[in-house]
Specification:
By secondary structure, the chain is α+β, with helices and mostly antiparallel strands. The protein has 6 helices and 14 strands. Helix 2 crosses helix 3 (132-150).
């Protein structure tokens, strides 16, 4: 796997084209630091280094470009440096199950991929099970990490009610909000390709609030809509867009809370706590 973080800001006709920015003031002075989950309470007094992308999914070196400090070139850094102090140790540890489940997904896919290359012998059918909400929350927390890391000058904030209850509570996203996986009908997935990150935001009283994320990682295109006012105002459009029934002009189709991934004769079943489909 090639692990790059090539942030490429983008938006749509209804959103602003943004650079991602710090959610909170992160500086050398400890007093300027703030755990972004502080509203949950129970913060520890110690900050931890949150890996921007899960440590277990990266090789020893990470190629990054598109950031303020490496514009126009790709710079390789140790994965231990691809971190930021944006969470206290308590809340960082609370997100560990998301890292574990996403890592397990890619390990399963690697086993399936290796199996498909075996020329001799009989390959049996296998089915593994992944928990959907853990993948969904991994994409959300990784997106928050990336907008912290991307720019410390221009802020893109998030509205706490659209993020914190889902990451650190039991609140579940309802269709069409949360995670959709976008498939291309024209291009083959590049599982060795670079990571791309795009956001859409809304300006409200001179503040920019995150409402949409597109994260391309290890061949997957993760699309994430937050339940902001901007997105709620175009609810019918988003329902159609995430229904899996519409193919865009460029050949992309979004499937919300996908139930499974087929890989040859093998399958990964994705379970969701709320199995009631709202798609009509």
């Amino acid at each position: 796997m090639r692990a790059d973080a090539n942030a490429c800001p983008a938006g749509s006709a209804t959103r602003n084209v943004d650079k991602a920015g710090s959610l909170y003031a992160i500086g050398q002075n400890f007093n300027l630091m703030k755990c972004y989950a502080n509203s949950v309470g129970n913060c520890s007094s110690k900050f931890s280094r949150e890996h921007i992308i899960s440590d277990s999914l990266l090789k020893s070196k990470v190629g990054v470009s598109g950031f303020d400090w490496c514009k126009g070139k790709e710079v390789f850094i140790g994965k231990g440096s691809f971190t930021q102090k944006i969470l206290c140790t308590t809340h960082n540890s609370a997100l560990s199950p998301f890292d574990s489940e996403m890592t397990r997904l890619f390990k399963i896919l690697k086993v399936y991929d290796d199996q498909s290359k075996i020329k001799t012998g009989i390959i049996g059918y296998k089915e593994e099970i992944i928990q959907g909400e853990l993948l969904e929350r991994w994409v959300l927390k990784t997106s928050i990490n990336l907008i912290h890391y991307y720019s410390r000058d221009e802020k893109v904030d998030f509205q706490e009610n659209t993020v914190i209850p889902y990451l650190f509570g039991d609140k579940l996203f309802q269709f069409p909000f949360g995670l959709s996986i976008t498939f291309s009908t024209k291009m083959k997935a590049d599982f060795e390709g670079k990571t791309h990150f795009q956001i859409g935001s809304t300006i409200n009283e001179k503040n920019r609030f995150l409402d949409t994320v597109i994260l391309v990682f290890n061949g997957f295109i993760f699309t994430f809509y937050l339940p902001t006012k901007t997105n709620l105002d175009q609810l019918d459009h988003l329902k159609l867009k995430c229904s899996g029934k519409v193919i865009s002009e460029k050949g992309f189709v979004n499937i919300w809370h996908i139930k499974g991934i087929n890989h040859g004769k093998n399958k990964i079943k994705i379970n969701w706590k709320d199995e009631i489909s709202i798609i009509k």
